[in-house]
Amino acid sequence: MITLFSLTLTVSIYLLTLKLGRKYSSPFTNSVFLSTVVIIIALELLNVSYEAYTPAKNIMTYLLGPATVALAVPIYKNKKLIADYFAAALVGLILGSVFTITFAIGLAVAFNFSKEIIVSLSVKSVTTPIAIEVGEIMKGNISLIAGFVMVTGMIGAMFGPKVLSWAKVDHPFARGLSIGTIGHGIGTAEAVKEGEIQGAVAGAAMGIAGILTAFAVPYLINFFI
Description:
By secondary structure, this protein is mainly α. The protein is built from eleven helices and no strands. Helix 1 (2-23) crosses helix 2 (31-45) and helix 6 runs antiparallel to helix 7. The N and C termini lie far apart (50 Å). The model has no long low-confidence stretch (mean pLDDT 88).
C-alpha cells in the first residue's frame, strides 16, 4: 500500500510542478528541481522513511530504462540532420567533455581534495550508469558520484537553456548538443521539452559524451595526480 501511495504521490507532484513550470518559467520552477524539493518535504511531513519509499523508487528507476531507449526514436527520425552536423558536433563533444572533466579535476586538485573525491567529481557530467562504472574502476565513492551526477544534471536542466538563450544560441541542434553533453539524462529530459530536434541531439550527445568520458577520465586523472 505504501508503495502505491509513494508512486501516486511522486507522479502527482511531478505533474503539478510540470504544469507550474510551464505557466511560470524560471530555473526554480523546473519540474525536476521543484518536484524533488516538494517530494522530500512531503515525505518528511508524512513521516515516510527512505526505506519505505525505496520500492517505489526502484520501480521508477526501472522505468528509466525504457524511457532512455525511447530516445532512439527521435534520434532515428533526425538521423540525416545528425549525420550532416556529425563532424562539427564530434569536435564540440570532445572539447566540451574534456573541458568539463579537466575543470572539475583541476578545481578539486587546487582545493587539495582526496583522490576519491577528485575521481567522483570527474565523472559528474555523464549519465549515472557510466559514471558509476568508471568511478568504481578509478576507486571513486559511489554515493558521492550519484550525488554529483544528480546535482550536475539538475543545474544543467535548470540553467542550461537560460544560459544558451542569454548567449543567443538559438539553433536547435546547438542547444541540444550543449545540454546533452553537460546535463546528461536530466538535461536531455529538459531538451526534449524544447523540441524533437533538441531532444534527439541531446540524447545522442549524452551517449557519445559518456563514451568519451570513459576513455578520457583515467588519462586525465593520471595526468593531474
